[in-house]
Amino acid sequence: MRLIILGGGWLFGLYAGSKLGVPVPLLASLVPAALVATFLLRRSWRGVLLGLLIAAALAGALRFQLHEDAAGRETLALNNGAGRVEIEGVVTSYPELRGSAIQFNLSAQQFRVDGEWRDVSGRVRVTARSPADLVGIRDPPNYRQGDLLRIAGEMESPQRFGDFDFPNFLAQQGVRSVMDFPRVTFLEGGQGPLMDRVLFSVRSRLAESLDLAIPGPNNGVAQAVALGIRQGIPGDLSEAFNESGTTHLLAVSGLHVAIVMGLALAVSRRLFWKPRLLMYLAPLIAVWLYALLAGLAPSAERAAIMGSFYLAALYFGRQRHGIEALLLAALLITAINPLALWQVSFQMSFLAMSGIVLVAPPLLEYVAGHGSRESGVIGSVVRTVVATTAMGIAATLMTWPAVAFYFDRVSIVGVPATVLALPLLPVVLVTSLLTGLVGLFSAPAALAIGWFAWLSLEYVIWVVQLFAAIPLAAIRLEDAGQPLALAYYAVIGAVLLALRSSASLRTYFSSCLPRPSFLVPRVPAIRAFPLVALSLAALTALAWWSAVPQPRGLLEVTILDVGQGGAILLRTPSRVTVLVDGGPNPQALNRALGPQFSYWSRRIDLVVATQPDQDHIGGLADVLARYEVGAVLQPVTEANTAAFKAWQEAVRRHGVPLLQAEAGQQVNLGDGVMLEVLHPPARPLSGTRSDIDNNSVVLRVVYGDVSFLLTGDLFALGETYLVERDANLASTVLKVGHHGSDTSTTQAFLQAVNPSAAVISVADDNPFGHPRQSTLDSIAAFVPEEGLFLTSRHGSIRFTSDGHRLWVDTER
Q1: Model confidence, pTM
Q2: How many H-runs (helices) and E-runs (strands) does the chain carry?
Q3: Could you report the per-residue pLDDT of 429-460, keeping only the tens digit for each?
Q4: Between the CA of residue 292 and those of 79, 204, 742, what are the distances in Å?
């Protein structure tokens, strides 16, 4: 009870302190006064509780005010909007790739004013490009926690994005300034707290290990579940988790920590049964190591504190109280960072854990009262699954109002989606962690373990996408205010109190609800083993069947949706594979390319880089690390850019044979499929508006009566060059040049190609206005409306041909 009083009073004091603004000296004098009053009232139990409540509330208000006073002394934000400024500081957050940009928080140390460097305090959110001097030396995202940087640019105050309160979001991280795409100078690494740098290094290596072992988009989900890194999840898949109400599966929370602690405890009981202290110390260390690997997010901190409380109770043989542990966790987290109370992630994790503590036990009690008592391994597994599912349902029920309040929607399929997806979450977590750890030492071993992670992730993603596709899976709620949320929680609280206090009410509800005996089936163990073995064998056979590519006798040409960039995958009937370009960044390419390969298929026979710009080669360096590449074909043209340097360094490091593209080359891909290089000429074009674009590699893929013309970013001058030299341009399908820009696709070129279908690789709402209407009008004179495809509208577009006929499948 005292912990409840202290925790509740502290949280109330934090909130009240944010509203009242009481001076620090007054609060500092009131806290000891309240403690003295509590001591004087020690003979009255109610007086002691009241005194503790008041003292805790005053202490909470004092902590908040101290934090605000410290924040008010920060001087960096005073220079927002002052024009171009120069700052030196240390990277203090995990740098995240956002397309071709990188975002991180920089803790300022010095600020240049009137040519003089002065000490300064405060943080700025930086969005920057990869520094050219670090490309080739470091893997993306190139920046590291602890890097000392000098940045020069225009610093501004953060602005709201529609309904998203971006300034408040950054303020919760102690950030009150933003700077977009400054000039960055790397000074030195190894600055800042040693622990932060070590954790960043370990998390980065584990994330890279998962990235290499598990194809996308599954690797992004694995990184989120195991490490709390969510930047690798594609936007459409992230939206599917939101729509299906299963986002809590991605957040490192009490459920994830409980799985790690349970496994560690089971192992330590066998290995360290004496001395008894070591038996509980080992899982305690495992819990905190996992929380550290997850970046010590509020949910991970809370869960680790509660896990510690639970293990201590086991060691001392004391009764375990979940609500006390939850409030203790909240008290410790907000004592370190008072603004955590206003962080949505903290609130969501706190509510989810409240559901596990308060709502899950009645559900489990009901199941235990009506389910069967199957013994042995099967019974243990089923009961574990039921318990995990009950916790997931409880967490979903408790977070519904918060989701409605913050995101103006609530998923009506969250509970059934959770019920189906949760049973495999322990498998996903354990196999992902093992894959990442083993991958640090042996890539082949990580590949073998990663297959189990990939298979379980396939199931979870399938469930999520299945429920997200249901019409009205999520209901939009405009202005779902606090009264609605408070009313919901009041009803939940009333029901829980009634169930706890009334045995007859529990019996009534028990009689109304369906019997859950099907959850724990009555199957004799001697019969159950062959049944389970047969099911597992069938599942394994099915998985292997899906993993082994089946020859279809068709040529496949897939224009991948990689945003504002280009990437095309060719696959011949005998599975010879060619990748043309790699899009603007590794995430986009991995998301689009991963589903095109089976798990064990990691071979690309030829990679073609049509030109050295970011939107064509940004993702290719990652391909050389992830796949076995036979050779690289690219033009002689070079570029002094970070993306091109990274690509060249990757080719050198992996020892892939490099071939120079030149008009007249032909590559026999087998099965009658020919790859013809039409451009650039032996003597590259020079002095043009854009030599890089006009010397793009132009390919013509021929299979019987069907052909594809892939033009890269060829400008009009390059098109005219090909037409005037009577290049064999006639093709069934045209990949339109330069993303539909008005710099390409001339009438003369279209007449020479005379396509039946055309494809434009382009991002929706791109800043260049691609495709241009004039280009679309030119194409319309040759290609019917149903024959024009845009990746922004249709997603990835796959053409298949038997050499005579042509079929088209689109992602959307």
Answers
A1: 0.74
A2: 29, 25
A3: 989 999 999 998 988 899 889 988 998 998 99
A4: 35, 13, 51
